[in-house]
Amino acid sequence: MNVSWRVDETYINVKCEWRYLYRAVDSDGNAIYFVLSAKWNRKATKKFLKKALSSNYNDSEKNNS
Fold first, then answer.
1. CA 20/CA 9 separation, integer angstroms
2. What is the DSSP string of the chain?
3. Strand 31-37 and strand 5-14: pairing?
4. What phi, psi does 29 have (nearest 5°)?
5. Are the beta carbons of 52 and 58 closer than 8 angstroms?
6. CA-to-CA distance for 61 and 37, rounded, in angstroms?
7. Taking the domains of the chain in order of start, what are their residue ranges?
8. pLDDT tens digits, one per residue of 36-51
């Protein structure tokens, strides 16, 4: 089982308003966790990373290794 995953950030248009999309994606392309934010800021980024690292996906992968 492959336990790698990556994080990306992009800027998307939702209902004619621009939003930042942060997402954690596993090696198969499945979303592990994502956040849509009206503006970019350090606090939102840190919150996203903290949630992604503590996600159930991450915990279950640790238990399988």
1. 7
2. ----EEEEEEEEEETTEEEEEEEEEETTS-EEEEEEESS--HHHHHHHHHHHHTSHHHHHHHHH-
3. unpaired
4. 90, 5
5. yes
6. 27
7. 5-64
8. 889 888 887 888 888 8
